[in-house]
């Protein structure tokens, strides 16, 4: 694969001819297959890691991966302990105006996950868990609006209640302990947990459109950096590196064929 030397990468990316600038500190997650995964504390692999490595090669910058829990990443970014973050999650911080986002590198979709033992037939009036600052703005009540030929009037046909958690381990624990009826994740992460846990989890309901997609995020102070990242993303899109990464991971990151839908806050429907 052009521009990609391996799916297993060293913690510090380096190459001959890189600039003498200090390494970019890129925050990521310890464990979020198929997007990011650490091996023996030293090597990384995954969809996001391949994309980041390609971006760093184009920028001719060393990129130091700094792994941590999701809820710690925003704190680290705000305190300038990392320069940017890439997490394989569609980001939706509570205060998005304080941040800059790269061009989306993946048009993500979200799916609902539940325990097979729950025997759920509908999400209507159920409680769904979600990680804070991801996917959708934090609101207690959402409604599922089906699109296309699957659209069903009235719009409030499927009403769901949300609870928010700090990170994915907390979210999965809440589902396992029956604190919530289901959870919502980016499709790739949901696929991993379904396939790797036998008969424990299953997908329920429609595939949900996520407006913003996946992007690299930084603070407003790093405007020049985000411009460089955007330029590099355009380069790997035009030279087919990005397409090759898609093809490599597509079966892991794409959702099953299901009806499509949007999540809409009740307050928006009442306007």
From TrEMBL:
Pfam families: SBP_bac_3 (PF00497). It is found in: Cell envelope. Transmembrane segments: none annotated. Keywords: Signal. Its main location: other. GO terms for cellular component: cell envelope. Residues 23-253 form the Solute-binding protein family 3/N-terminal domain. Belongs to the bacterial solute-binding protein 3 family. This is Glutamine ABC transporter.
């Amino acid at each position: 694969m052009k521009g990609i030397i391996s799916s297993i990468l060293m913690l510090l990316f380096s190459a001959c001819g890189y600039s003498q600038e200090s390494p970019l500190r890129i925050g990521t997650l310890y464990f979020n297959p198929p997007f990011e995964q650490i091996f023996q504390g030293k090597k990384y692999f995954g969809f996001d890691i391949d994309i980041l490595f390609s971006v760093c090669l184009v920028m001719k910058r060393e990129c130091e991966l700094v792994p941590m829990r999701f809820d710690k990443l925003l704190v680290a970014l705000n305190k300038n302990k990392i320069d940017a973050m890439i997490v394989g999650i569609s980001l939706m911080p509570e205060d998005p105006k304080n941040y800059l986002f790269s061009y989306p590198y993946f048009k993500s979709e979200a799916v609902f996950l539940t325990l097979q033992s729950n025997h759920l037939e509908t999400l209507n009036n159920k409680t769904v868990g979600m990680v804070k600052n991801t996917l959708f703005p934090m609101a207690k009540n959402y409604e599922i609006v089906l699109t296309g030929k699957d659209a069903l009037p009235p719009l409030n046909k499927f009403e769901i209640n949300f609870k928010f958690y700090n990170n994915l381990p907390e979210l999965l624990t809440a589902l396992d302990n029956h604190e919530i009826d289901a959870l919502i994740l980016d499709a790739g992460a949901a696929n991993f947990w379904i396939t790797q846990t036998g008969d424990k989890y299953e997908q329920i309901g429609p595939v949900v459109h996520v407006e913003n997609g996946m992007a690299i995020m930084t603070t407003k102070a790093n405007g020049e950096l985000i411009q460089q990242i955007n330029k590099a993303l355009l380069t790997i899109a035009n030279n087919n590196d990005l397409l090759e990464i898609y093809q490599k991971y597509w079966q892991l990151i794409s959702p099953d064929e299901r009806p499509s839908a949007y999540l809409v806050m009740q307050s928006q429907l009442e306007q």
